[in-house]
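*** Fold description ***
***
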Amino acid sequence: MDATKGKVDQGMQNPGGQMDKPVGYHFMESMLPKVVKRRVHALKRLQVQCANIEAKFYEEVHELERKYAALYQPLFEKRRDIVTGTVEPTDEECEWHSDREEEEELAEEIKEKAVIEDSKKEEATPQEDAKGIPEFWLTIFKSVDMLSDMLQEHDEPILKHLKDIQVKFSEPGQPMSFTLEFHFEPNGYFNNAVLTKVYKMKSEPDASDPFSFEGPEIIDCEGCQIDWHKGKDVTVKTIKKKQKHKGRGTVRTITKQVPNDSFFNFFNPVKVSPDGEMDEDSEFTLATDFEIGHFFRERIVPRAVLYFTGEALEDDESFEEEELEEGDEEEQDEEGDDDDDEGDFDPKKEQPQPAECKQQ
């Protein structure tokens, strides 16, 4: 449900039929007759009750997600075992049928790319029989723009050891949340077998602004401590600086560690300020973090193989292009209307506003 703050959808209409400037809803209410305003207040009380029922609905949806997550889990475990090479799927399990034309086109493109890649690999080092699906998760990270933006070259050797990503939902009776678990095989970078990121959620109307409620939203997140091997922490880098003594004029070289760009900073997120006051950069960083966490949960983990093959990327791109085309058409229609109604254009008329986005 959309909630419009500070403005009504349309301006008040005057007796002559022309639209005045849009006015604030407080002013609009103040212009209503007292008996009408009283009834509007009754409707608002009903609206708050609707918001509370909607909150209960989303709580039950969360419980339903948790229930079905247990049903998905055996399938995701089988996916992990195939990816890591722990099990080899049977011929029957490998049978797959799809649209012949699309498959042949895709196969030809893949073959061409594979020939090029294989020749490069063979020139570099002789390849043994591949185990499982090599670099499954790393390929996904590099293919998805939202993730590749965080990925640095020094992260890639580490992510080759990523075995699985799982989503765990909070238990009944606990505050609403979900946890992303990144499972790693033993490696030479850190001791952790699992890295976690907890996203805390809220699914209740705000007492001070109940009409803004649009469903569950992420309100905070918490990472974990990575137990790095000595000299392997990619989230910091060592720099050397020269210092000159003011009195003697002698120069000495010191070394110190400074933050370094890395995907693994994902596990050390910006914390929400207790008083809610944050600078613009921190707010943007946190909002982006929430969006990434939601994307892992809703898209990457459930549809991993389709992001690996690129099919999910094509779906995402098609959806974005469709939205863009619709937007272009609307803009063209507006321009066309302006031409048709030349001389009747009212500059005071409010243009449609985009819906507010919220992480859920």
User: Anything to note?
Assistant: Residues 1-22, 339-360 have pLDDT under 50 and may be disordered.
